[in-house]
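Hi support team,

I submitted a single chain yesterday and got back a structure, but I'm not sure I'm reading the token output correctly. Could someone confirm the output below corresponds to the sequence I sent? I've pasted both exactly as they appear in my results page.

Thanks,
R.
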Amino acid sequence: MIDLYYWTTPNGHKITIFLEETGLEYTLKPVNISAGQQFEDSFLNISPNNKIPAIVDRRPDDGGKPFSIFESGAILEYLSEKTGRLMPPDLRDRWQAIQWLHWQMGGFGPMLGQNHHFKQYAPEKLPYAIERYDKEAERLYGVLDDQLRDKDYIAGEYSIADIATYPWARLHERHGVDLKDLPNVARWLNTMAERPAVKRAYAKADTINTQATVSDESKAILFGQGRRK
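Hi R., thanks for writing in. Yes, this is the structure output for that exact sequence:
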């Protein structure tokens, strides 16, 4: 039913976790972003921003032709609506989940991505950039810890907000974040990691991308692209 164009990144993991949680039929279509496959015309027709993940719903609910969606947050909202799963039915609870999904999409993911980039991949270590994103990572993890203080899950019950946030938060060591002062995040991470669907999603990832290193060639593909003409 769902073709998932995917690579083993935090944003890619969001969608495999959702699909494993719901049991929705899907086919993985690996897109090796280190090899530049995201720039092939066949993929750009589905994801014009040349980013994974993207999906094609072969049986959309309107009964029409196959329907493609890009952007991981939009995909999660679409699949949640399609399945009626992982989104609270109550108005207030539903908007709790939606706003925390957007918090992840607009801040937690992009800022942590920059944090990791400037510490791990930048050819020149820029103290200002490293400090700026370290401080933002500290702030964002603190926001998450505060939200989880009296909740098992981010929006109260398990939802797409948790699915969106977990693949980034599990990389806290890369972000220079120590969980000793974030007990609620630590508890939540352990709970998420034990979910069978999460385990299945990461087990699939291990079979797809077996190359852990990033080469100079792949860096040029991943980080050196301007507008493509």
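A quick pointer for reading it: The domain at 91-194 is CATH 1.20.1050.10 (Glutathione S-transferase Yfyf (Class Pi); Chain A, domain 2). Let us know if anything else looks off.

Best,
Support desk
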